[in-house]
Structures are given as structure tokens and as C-alpha cells.
Specification:
The structure holds 2 protein chains of 2 kinds.
Chain A lengths: L6 H8 L3 H23 L2 H17 L10 H20 L19 H13 L3 H12 L4 H8 L3 H21 L5
Helix pairs in contact in A: 1-2, 2-3, 2-4, 3-4, 4-6, 5-8, 6-8, 7-8
Chain B lengths: L3 H11 L13 H9 L6 H16 L3 H8 L1
The chains are: A mainly alpha, B mainly alpha.
């Protein structure tokens, strides 16, 4: 992320200057959008979450320390906003599954892939975010830890728990990995 | 039996990596509108928050359950 920023610009942002905020938005918009897209995996949703994230950033500007990285701070806010979206959109594990979501008997990689996708969407959002970034997007653990403001050990633990939960959900769907 | 590598391969097949895309439109006006929108807090939200606080004070062990699901 572009993060060699003018301290004065950041100070103006903290003071609520909208022009300064717009300048920051223009510099970080694309990077933040791509980060959100990696998590929510839908372009239109990523735009909505981006608006939410920058609104949260402006609302919480008083908590930002201009001596720190704006990019890292913004990425944490974006990650939280994306996770909140997943939480709101999450199908509930254990609830009755709509007929159209019941996977066909697993006979091919495609069927298995659909079952894995269905099972993945039932993971708790905090596991889903970490698993998406680590297993699908192959982001470095350190980067994920920074974005979630967590120790690397916790990220590794969540990846492990996500795989275990995925296997459990697949077993519930009649697949025994 | 699916090993971890195979599971990861299936996940990547089900959810292909995202390409380097950009927003399809200018989102800045939406952010400005959001900033200038009046903050509304409904009585329902306030009542719900109060109810949750009271329940957690009565049953503090439920906090762990709540934290797990958050």
C-alpha cells in the first residue's frame, strides 16, 4: 500500500478535514478494495463494504495516530467491515438447508468442490476470513496477522480450526474427509 | 480421505483467487453522503443493547458463548 504520507495530511484528516480524507481515499481506495474483495469475493459487495470501511475510518479518525501507518490502520478497519458483512450474510450451520443448496451425491471433483464451497460458507466469519486469506489467497501469515491485529500464532491456530470445522461440516453433509 | 493439500486445492477450485480489479464507479460521493447522513439510533437498538447487557450481568458465563460466535 502507498504509505509514504505527509504527516500534515494525516493530521488534517484526524482533525476532520474532508479534503485530506479525500486525498487519502484516492491513494488507498484500490488497495483497500482489492483487500476487501479477497475476503467477500463479490465485486458489488466489496464496493459496499469499502464505503462502510472508509465511513468507519472517518468516524474513528480521532483514534488514529498520525505517526503510524494509515494503510495498516485502514486495512484493519476494512477487514473488520468485511468480517461484519460475512457475519450478516452467513448461512447458519445446523439450520435447515434449502433444497437448492443440498449438494448432489459426491461423485466428481465438481460435486466435491460444491460441497466444500457450501461447507466453507458455514464457517464462523472469524475463521472464514483467516482461511480465505491464508488458504485461498495465500497471503503471508504476518500480513493477515497485521490486518486482523492478532498474533501470528492466533492466525495459525484459526487456520487449523477452520480446516477442522470444514471437515466437520463436510461430514455433516455426508462427506468424510 | 482428503488430506489438507487436497482440501486446499478443492477450496481454491471452488473460490478462485480474485483478480486485480478496481471499483466500477466513483465511490467517494457515497462516502461523503454517508458522513453527512444524520446518525439515527432507534429505541429498539437501545433497548436490545440494554437487554443484552442485563442478561450478561445475570449470566456472565454466556459472554464466552457470545465471544465465540463473534
Amino acid at each position: 500500500m502507498p504509505d509514504e504520507l505527509d504527516r500534515d495530511l494525516l493530521r488534517l484528516f484526524v482533525q476532520g478535514d474532508l479534503d485530506a480524507f479525500e486525498s487519502l481515499f484516492k491513494q488507498f481506495e484500490i488497495d483497500v478494495y482489492r483487500w476487501i474483495l479477497r475476503i467477500v469475493r463479490d465485486a458489488s459487495t466489496a464496493e459496499d463494504v469499502l464505503v462502510e470501511a472508509f465511513w468507519r475510518a472517518y468516524r474513528g479518525r480521532g483514534h488514529f495516530d498520525p505517526s503510524r501507518s494509515f494503510g495498516a490502520w485502514m486495512r484493519r478497519i476494512a477487514t473488520n467491515a468485511a468480517r461484519d458483512h460475512l457475519r450478516a450474510a452467513r448461512p447458519r450451520a445446523g439450520w435447515s438447508t434449502p433444497d437448492h443448496q443440498i449438494p448432489a451425491p459426491v461423485g466428481s471433483d465438481r460435486d466435491l468442490g460444491e460441497a466444500v464451497a457450501l461447507a466453507f460458507r458455514t464457517l464462523p466469519p472469524k475463521l472464514q476470513v483467516v482461511a480465505t486469506l491464508a488458504l485461498i489467497e495465500e497471503q503471508p501469515y504476518a500480513e493477515i496477522a497485521d490486518a486482523l491485529d492478532l498474533p501470528i500464532g492466533t492466525v495459525k491456530s484459526r487456520v487449523f480450526r477452520a480446516i477442522r470445522a470444514l471437515r466437520k461440516e463436510l461430514a455433516r453433509l455426508g462427506i468424510h474427509p | 480421505m482428503i488430506d489438507d493439500d487436497r482440501l486446499q486445492h478443492l477450496l481454491r477450485s471452488a473460490f478462485p483467487r480474485t483478480a486485480d480489479q478496481e471499483p466500477s464507479r466513483d465511490l467517494w460521493p457515497l462516502i461523503v453522503n454517508r458522513i453527512h447522513a444524520p446518525v439515527r439510533r432507534s429505541w429498539l437498538d437501545i433497548s436490545l443493547a440494554a437487554a443484552i447487557a442485563i442478561v450478561l450481568m445475570m449470566f456472565p458465563e454466556w459472554l464466552l458463548l457470545l465471544a465465540y460466535h463473534l
